[in-house]
Amino acid sequence: MPNRFSEQALRESQAFGVRQIPVLRPLGWLARGWRDLWRAPGVSLSHGLAMGLFGALLLWLAHDRFWLLAGAFTGFLIVAPILATGLYAISRELDRGGRPGWRTVREAWRPHDGRLIVFGILLAFAGTGWVLCSAAFVTGFVADPIQQPRDFLLKVVLADDAHLFSTWLMLGAVLAAPMFASTVVAIPALVDLPPSKIGVLGAVFTSWKVVLEHPAPLALWAALILALTLVGMGTALVGLIVIAPWLGHASWHAYLDLVIRRPD
């Protein structure tokens, strides 16, 4: 039997409709995100630099333990939506005709009601869980130690056991897919709307409703996010300085494009 929290979340989700969009609309989100990036380049690229430096810190901490690093980098994708909170606020201010700056970011991160803190903690647990699962899988099923990227390539990706890498990918997808569905518009909604309009669970329900009504466009959006993130990581993290804020701004426009707020 549903409890009062899930019933309230369902009512909150029902207050929002889903706008119908064509399959290729995510390309438009990227175009608008690119525009926002260069309308507020200083504060936007600072977010990208911070994420790139965080990636560099992971490399430094686990440079000789790639079995751990592989999970840490993929786990980073799970918590990235909450790290983009300031970018959503910047795009919102630009849409309002304002001139966003660091004050806009500080206001977005200030814990007015705790919803983003709760969501951030939940995503951190999910990301940590994947890192531990990934590390346990690689160390448990690979006889030799995985210390360098070359070891991961030879002993996992190109292993004689053809199912090893595909199983690792499947495990990641089992966690990543529901995380993507839970966050694709949820965090922008929490940034945009007060707690009287939507809570954490209501935002998650709304996000799932969006994905279920638009599986093809959202699958394309997930693939674009993954591909661009891999490009950022594959350029020694330098590309993340531009790609991370670009995707953050684009995600705000995905939210605006997909969610219709019905009259109170």
From TrEMBL:
Keyword Membrane attached: yes
Superkingdom per UniProt: Bacteria
Xref: InterPro entries: DUF2189 (IPR018692)
Cross-referenced Pfam families: DUF2189
Tagged with keyword Cytoplasm: no
Transmembrane segments: 42-61, 67-90, 116-143, 163-191, 218-247
Keyword annotations from UniProtKB, A to Z: Membrane, Transmembrane, Transmembrane helix
Protein name in the entry: DUF2189 domain-containing protein
Originating species: Roseateles puraquae
